[in-house]
Specification:
Blueprint lengths: L1 H5 L3 H26 L2 H18 L1 H10 L5 H20 L9 H17 L6 H15 L10
Helix pairs in contact: 2-3, 2-4, 2-5, 3-4, 3-5, 3-6, 3-7, 4-5, 5-6, 6-7
């Protein structure tokens, strides 16, 4: 009963529990971007975010709703970091120009879900799936595998 007086919804409880962690992951975007080329920076940040989501299921649940308009505090910090990295990768030609940052976050959520289905615990499957995803997002619109 006391818990629900402070946090009437599951979303509010998750935000209170994981907001600092999400803010730290979002802040890592700038650190990574300063040390790597734009495409590699996006990949490295998404990898960190994915592994965090895999290790902390509440973080995955929170991020799933945050990217689709959940709580403004948690959603803004992650969407902002993703936007900066996605736009930089697009400007560098490392990412398709028609990809939106929120789409990348939604796809990342799917990657983590797929890794969970494979009983992933150490990040190996998540990294493989993320690599496949990013390779696909690097192609131009309408280009399939093997087309240049």
């Amino acid at each position: 009963g006391t818990l629900y007086r402070h946090f009437p919804t599951r979303q509010e409880l998750l935000e209170a529990a994981y907001l600092e962690r999400l803010e730290a992951i979002a802040a890592r975007a700038d650190v990574i971007a300063a040390a790597r080329p734009p495409g590699a920076a996006l990949m490295a940040w998404l990898d960190e975010l994915a592994v965090g989501m895999l290790q902390v299921r509440g973080l995955k649940a929170l991020l799933g709703t945050a990217v689709t308009g959940g709580g403004p505090a948690c959603g803004d910090c992650v969407r902002g970091a993703a936007t900066r990295l996605v736009r930089a990768a697009q400007e560098a030609g490392a990412l398709r120009a028609d990809v939106e940052p929120v789409e990348v976050l939604r796809l990342l959520h799917g990657v983590v879900t797929a890794a969970e289905a494979a009983d992933e615990v150490d990040g190996t499957a998540v990294r493989r799936y993320l690599s496949l995803l990013m390779e696909g997002l690097g192609r131009g619109p309408g280009q399939g595998p093997g087309q240049v």
